[in-house]
Amino acid sequence: MPTHSTSLPAEPPPFFKRGPSPLARLTFFGVASLTLMFIDARFRTLETVRMAIATVIYPVQQAALVPGVLARDMAEFFQSRTALRQENAALKAELLDAEQARQALTAAQLERERLQKLLQIAQTGATRAQATRVAYVGRDPFSQKLFIERSGGQSFEPGSAVVDEAGLLGQVTRVHPLLAEVTMLTEKDFAVPVKIERTGGRALLYGRGPGKLPELRYVASNADVREGDVVLTSAIDGLYPGNVRVGRIGSVQRDAESAFARVECVPSANLSGAERVLVLDKPAALPARPNPDDTAAEPVRRKRR
Amino acid sequence: MSRFHLPDSPLFRIAKPEDILLAPKPWFVALTLALAFTVNLLPLSGIALALRPDFFALVLLYWAIHQPRWVGIGVAWCCGLLTDVVEANLFGQHALAYAILGFAAGYFHRRVLRFPLWQQALHVLGLLLVAQIVVLVLRLMSGAGMPNVIFLLSSFASALIWPLISALLQWPQRVRSLLD
Question: Would you say B81 and B126 are in contact if contact means Cβ atoms under 8 Å apart?
Answer without folding.
Answer: no
